[in-house]
Amino acid sequence: MGWMRKRPSSRAFERQSSVRRQLLTAGAMSLAGLGLAAVRKGRAAILEENQRAAQPKTPVARGAILVAGRPEEAGMSSPRLNRIADRLQTETSSGRVTSASILVARHGKIVLHRGFGKLHSGPGAPVTRPDTIYLLASISKPVTVCALMRLVERGQVVLSDPVQRYLPEFQGDHKAQVKVWHLLSHISGMPDMVPNNVALRRAHAPLSRFVEEALGTPLLYQPGTQFAYQSMGTLLAAEITERVSEMRLRDFLRREIFAPLQMQHTTLGLNGLAISETAIYQERNGDTNDAKSWGPNSAYWRDMGHPWGGLHSTTGDLARLLQTFQNGGRGGEFQLFSAGTGNAMTRDHNQRVGAPWGLGWALRDSPVWNYFGDLGSASTFGHVGVTGTVAWSDPSRRLICVLLTTGGASTRGRFLLNGISNMVQSAVVAA
Question: pTM value?
Answer without folding.
Answer: 0.88
